[in-house]
Write a structure and sequence with these properties.
Number of strands: 11
Helix content: 25-40%
Order of helices and strands: EHEHHHEHEHHHHEEEEEEE
Shape: elongated
Radius of gyration: 31 Å
Distance between the termini: 79 Å
Number of domains: 3
Structural class: alpha/beta
Low-confidence stretches: 218-228, 232-241
Mean pLDDT: 76
CATH superfamily of the largest domain: P-loop containing nucleotide triphosphate hydrolases
CATH class of the largest domain: Alpha Beta
CATH architecture of the largest domain: 3-Layer(aba) Sandwich
Strand order of the largest sheet: 5-8-9-10-11
Length: 241
Amino acid sequence: MADDNIILTGFMGTGKTTTGRLLAARLGREFVDTDELIVARDGRAIADIFNEDGETHFRELEAAVAQELARRRGLVVATGGRLMLDPANATALGATGPVFCLTAEPEDILGRVAATGGKRPLLDVANPEARVRALLAEHPDMPATVIAERVEWDGSITWFRENVRRLRPEHRPVDPADRLTWAAGDAAQCDLWFPPRKIPLEDGSSVLLPVLVIVAALSIVILFRTSERWVYYEGESDKAG
């Protein structure tokens, strides 16, 4: 409907406030940033609220704002980075209009946060991604909770786990089952082959037999075994083995 709210969500630094202001100006609507509203009413920066009263108190302030805005219409609302992760907040605001989730690359997020000069409590760790990468390079399977302790992370563990999950594949050795390239001799594949014609045996008879085929990776050599003997194949020539 024409008076539905437009809700913007996404992690910090994805451009919710900037996008929201531009969209509200284009549509002639009132713009509300939930973080800015909380700061204006509380009189303290968000980092100070976190440090002095804890994250739980801040989430309570967010919930109150979400319920208040859910009773209004015709707004463009930029939510705090985790506000919509609370089911009650998501239900309340989601019922007032469409929800759009903005995304950005983690490197862009860190760059934007650093450029603003503001202190984000959930990213208050010196170069967190570089420290996480260093640990994963040495211990690819280290649990995210252990990494969090090593880098002294005291922000959102959910966000931290998600980003460790994103970075881990870059440092974990490739599972042999998933490899697409092999050095010659590194691997072999074994299959049963059922040829379309009978196989001649040494006694002169011919029978239909399954054949075990072994293929060495990146090799033109095929070695297969009938019930009686090994047969070596290379290029166009057959050799009895």
